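2.7 Reproducibility. Because tokenized structures are sensitive to small changes in the input, we list the exact sequence used for Helix-turn-helix domain-containing protein, including any N-terminal residues retained from the expression construct. No trimming or masking was applied before prediction.
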Amino acid sequence: MKVMKGNASRKEHETFIELPLQQKKEEPIGGMNKKTVLLLEDKNEIAWLVSDILSDNYDVCCVHTSQEAFGYLRKNTPAVFLADTMIYLKEENKFIEYVQTNKGLLMNTAFIPMLTWKAAFLLQKDLNKLVDGFVVMPYNILFLKEIVNMAVSRRSVKEDTVLVNVPGETGRDIICETAEQANFAKQLLKVLDDNLDKEDLSTAFIAEQMNISPRQYYRRFKEISGLSPTDFIKNYRIEKAAALLLETDWPILKVISEVGIQSRSYFYKEFASRYGVTPKVYKKNRLDKEITEEENIDN
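Resulting structure tokens (single pass, no recycling of outputs):
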């Protein structure tokens, strides 16, 4: 709002004083300490616009890649994770799936994706259980502050929430709202670990191992995961393989055999889809990173 300078004008012996107009500054939600919004955005103009809209109430920390975002989330707990999924145009579903597999990092953080209306429509079913609100671009950008405020206001963690760690390279967690769900998740992971070298880990087989019906298994599984059982097991195999690559010197055929994958070409395809590189490059990059970190500590 433009501030007008005070001035006096005289008309027919009357004096009119034009006083400065002052805009009232909005108080941050929850007191003087601002909450943090983690913004995943690769366009500087959008990052500036979002920061400008939210700056009265929030400190905005901007990152440019999902790797940077989840690296930040592993060390910090922002109030909101605001992610522009248009960075991954036509592959928003893969980004949402990646968030789903790492949702343990968002237990105390509201997740708000910024996406196209088409993606919002196609991903509506997946988004319902995962997000605390979403921004359809560019139409909802004017309501961004209200959307963020609402998500922060209603975001709360239930006292009986239980985290069940999923072994593997990502070290993610399953968020369980009851002790019954946590027991189911632990039992499921034990069955998977005991039988991971088997190629056929069907719903019927796992349900039998858990002494429940396939229908009960599927219903209870959907309570703890937004993925299908098939996708969850596929991800579990790939992540366990990634961990074995780092922990052992086994040849690739032994690694994939240990996680129940028979096709080398299938493994390479799924591994590259998940990590962006081949198993060999992945292991080299991780080892090089560990060496660099050790050298930095020594210095």
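The chain has two domains: 35-154, 162-286.
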